[in-house]
What we know:
The structure holds two protein chains of two kinds.
Chain A: E1 5-7, E2 10-13, E3 19-24, E4 31-37, E5 44-50, E6 53-57, E7 64-68, E8 74-78, E9 87-94, E10 105-106, E11 110-114
Parallel strand pairs in A: 2-11
Antiparallel strand pairs in A: 1-3, 3-8, 4-5, 4-9, 5-6, 7-8, 9-10, 9-11
Chain B: E1 5-7, E2 10-14, E3 19-24, E4 30-38, E5 45-50, E6 56-59, E7 62-67, E8 72-77, E9 86-94, E10 106-111
Parallel strand pairs in B: 2-10
Antiparallel strand pairs in B: 1-3, 3-8, 4-5, 4-9, 6-7, 7-8, 9-10
Amino acid sequence: AAGVIQSPRHLIKEKRETATLKCYPIPRHDTVYWYQQGPGQDPQFLISFYEKMQSDKGSIPDRFSAQQFSDYHSELNMSSLELGDSALYFCASSHRMTPGADTQYFGPGTRLTVL
Amino acid sequence: ILNVEQSPQSLHVQEGDSTNFTCSFPSSNFYALHWYRWETAKSPEALFVMTLNGDEKKKGRISATLNTKEGYSYLYIKGSQPEDSATYLCAPVSGGYNKLIFGAGTRLAVHP
């Protein structure tokens, strides 16, 4: 079965650079979520989109922005990168049936390293 | 902000042992509880989504129960196998929102 695809899988950037992470949801899934997992931390919710509209927002820095496109893929744009942005970024997708109780399927993650 | 606690933090068992761990969460404004299994270097794998008080779900040797009134869920693994070694995360959802607030997880190691 098709899974969530994230690209790139690994990314190395310098401080103050920008990065774009991409997420391709499972076909027919209409909702995308982004999570950040710092070293030794639990995954933290960043932001989610349903039908191309932002549906919920978590602890996402103002330097980050995201959107969901007409084909339902999503991109997380990160600017003015800081060392503390080094983390594993997961994308998850779901098909909205019962908000809150929809199973979220996670992608393999993008590991971002900021030097 | 939800305060999610999982216990124990880590667990070492022998192959064939049965084990269980706990997820505690605020019972007010409860909407759903998600359980995930997370193996090192892989992405979290959904196990269960539970919504109703008294819910019991089962997937192979793994089962879970839910008590929304007192704010806890138990995950049971019967006859643990080395391939069950992983971190088991719970994530309650409140208010109908979809964002998962993960607990710190229980790290299970099953020794042959």
